[in-house]
Amino acid sequence: MNGQEEPTPKVTEDKTSKVTEDKTPRVTEEKTQKVTEDSILPQVYKRRWIILFLFSFVSLTNNFQWLHLNIIGDVLLNYYNASLPEDKFQQETALDWLSMVYMLAYIPLIFPSTWLLDKKGLRVVIICGSFLNAVGAWIKVACVNPDRFALLMFGQSVCSVAQIFILGIPARLAAIWFGPNQVSTATSLGVFGNQIGAAVGFLLPPLLVKYSPDIDLVSSQLYTLFYIGSNKDNRLLSTVAVFKKEPPQPPSRAQWLAVRNAASQHYGKSLLRLLKNRGFLLLVLTYGINTGSYYAIATLLNPVVLHYYPGHQKEAGEIGLTVVIAGIVGAILAGVWLDKTKTFKGTTVGIYLLSLAGMVAFTFTLNVNLLWVVYLCAGILGFFMTGYLPVGFEIAAEITYPESEGTSSGLLNASAQVICSEVFSK
């Protein structure tokens, strides 16, 4: 697992087949290229696990910043009432925008961010994302005052821009650092960090911040919550400095070819080829519906649960946690399954059907007045819907090779943001 992949034997050129002076330059070039390609010795490095862990922690902190506000929406509405509109609907809309700003930022900025990933590599992009996330988190620390909702929105907006540099990385990182039999598992583990961030974002805020008419008490609780997030991001920023752009040797022949062709690839032409790929466009649509629905559920979970179960703020967070934890298990199992079977299409169709069944069950059991049933249906929904995230990245990489995994993943995520935005517009 940590060792070297079985190398391809070097090609030894027979003396009788050497290119003589009367051969054309093209023949000489083709033969040289073949010898070079056949002489590749793919290698994987132990440090790949450190790189994956660092990225997962970056993703964790960013996804925590996304979800940790809306899950205590009722507390924020009461606390920031002085700086919110008087109309109740406008207040709730303003609160929803703390999550929606992530979707708004992603859609236009996905193209420059994937261009930067293609041209500068993983290290530059990850450092950009970590820096912006830390800045946004520290801005929130300064927002602990009832008349500073606008500043809170600004801090959240900075974190939303950081997301652009993080969300589409797992498939690209896995391809660059991991061998062909570990790529799907590595992608799942990359998504794992993102989902752990969501889990902490659902669980921690309701435990730290309680609804109370005492503004000073809520101020103290919010300060603790924001400081925990900012301190974590600050330490991470120094740690991520050890992040490497790529290994000395590629982990597979396919990755060697991708690196060799990257310098000559034109980003605009690559994007155009992706948009002409019918299979990929179908995947973009279906992935957007599935993942966009998950984003909408995560954003609206607090008001939806409190509508049917008033006063159960803690349970709303626990239901969200159930969705995420079940999804983490589903994502890891899906990654291992794909590495073993390579059944991308069958796995995708199966997950779509089961996600639909889970969504129907969750929707129609909210009003049965049995919380354990809601927990159960939330777990089933999360296992398939959230577990599909790495599967989508991997099937996109498969059907669009040799295009950049970062670009294909970015377009999938953009589709999810568009679908989620459309849900809110209704």
TrEMBL record:
This protein's UniProt keywords: Cell membrane, Erythrocyte maturation, Glycoprotein, Membrane, Phosphoprotein, Receptor, Transmembrane, Transmembrane helix, Transport
A GO molecular-function annotation: heme transmembrane transporter activity
Gene Ontology terms describing biological process: erythrocyte maturation; heme biosynthetic process; heme export
Compartments where located: Cell membrane
A Pfam entry, by short name: MFS_1
A single GO cellular-component term on record: mitochondrial membrane
Transmembrane segments: 49-67, 97-117, 124-143, 149-169, 279-297, 317-337, 349-366, 372-391
Segments of skewed composition (Basic and acidic residues): 7-32
Annotated stretches, region: Disordered: 1-32
Similarity comment text for this entry: Belongs to the major facilitator superfamily. Feline leukemia virus subgroup C receptor (TC 2.A.1.28.1) family.
Name of this protein: Choline/ethanolamine transporter FLVCR1
